[in-house]
Amino acid sequence: MKEKLTEIREAALKSIDDATDATLEQIKVRYLGKKGELTAVLRGMGSLTPEERPKIGQLANEIRESIEAAIAKKVQEAQAKALERKLKAEKVDVTMPGTALPAGHIHPLTKVRRDLEDIFIGMGFQVVEGPEVELDYYNFQALNIPENHPARDTQDTFYITDNILLRSQTSPVQVRTMEHMKPPIRIISPGRVYRSDALDSTHSPLFHQLEGLVVDKGITMGDLKGTLETFAKKMFGENTRIRFRPHHFPFTEPSAEVDASCFVCGGKGCRLCKGEGWIEILGAGMVHPFVLSNCGIDPEEYSGFAFGLGIERITMISRGIDDIRLFYENDQRFLDQF
Ligand code: PHE
Q1: DSSP for 130-159?
Q2: Can you give the C-alpha Rg of the chain in angstroms?
């Protein structure tokens, strides 16, 4: 009987050692269960002598305990292994590079508008705004463009009523500013303007301008040139030169179109400047005396200059963009380049 018990122990311990999670429960039943092998042996204890009985009983108990302990140990090992596997699978390596989230960024027109603002703020200008829905008076009349004036034809205007329109230029902000601000005046005004043009690679019914206005005692064309030259150097590079070509605007006298020397070829002539060496950047002039007096400023006492530039145009020439429509389509492949 003693031998039988030791055999059971050997066999049980060995099978526990080899057991998997699934077979462990079967092993437990097989050896320790009510119909198990150990129980079967103990049932035969009746045939033993009174001296043998306690010894065998003790041995049987020891064997039961050692089998139970072996099973408990095996279970614990299995749990530890499972936990380790889980920890490994769920491990976060904080040293791994992160996943970049797609982020938007500043639109090229906004970027250039801000650059322009920074340049003029640095020269002592103040940024002001005006309405996009404007009265005919501010967009035309006060700017020395009376009804039936041919200049109205050059800016195909969206009218809302006979009297109310979408501003076709930022120049009405000149008038609004002079009406309530006393000289010295030094302002810029960026914003949207509207013209009833068909959309193509160089025209858009909505675009952006930036207006500039300076009014004080003794302001001359020299001040205008100096201001625009400083601006051009800051915007297009230190070697940039500017030139004035005679032009006509009803609200400035004299008026000029202003060119910057080509910042790609430096003036020699290239693709960007179409062989000219110069690129048109804006319109400007000395504020017409009629405009000053329309705004309650005495042209005998004060003089001023004004300029207006297209933000799309400045952005296109400085960034090598050849189609204005790209600004409004918001194709990420275009925007991502800036
Ligand atoms: N308003 C003019 C335009 O849209 C530009 C300009 C502004 C010209 C100020 C002279 C002075 O063409």
Answers
A1: --SEEEHHHHTGGGT--TT-THHHHS---B
A2: 45
* Predicted structure pTM score: 0.73
Question: Amino acid identity of 209?
Answer: Q
> Ligand 1, residues 249, 280, 292, 314: which to mutate, most atoms within 8 A of Cβ?
249
| Ligand 1, pocket-test mutation among 168, 251, 280, 291, most atoms within 8 A of CB | 251
Domain ranges of the chain: 2-89, 108-335
Which atom belonging to ligand 1 lies closest to the Cα atom of 213?
9
Report the alpha-carbon distance of residue 66 to residue 325 in Å, rounded: 85
Pick the CATH number of 108-335 from 3.40.640.10, 3.40.1190.20, 3.40.50.300, 3.30.930.10: 3.30.930.10
Rounded distance, CA 237 to CA 262, Å?
10
pLDDT per position as a tens digit, 18-50: 888 778 888 888 888 888 877 777 777 778 888
Residues 130-151 have pLDDT tens digits of: 999 999 999 999 999 988 887 7
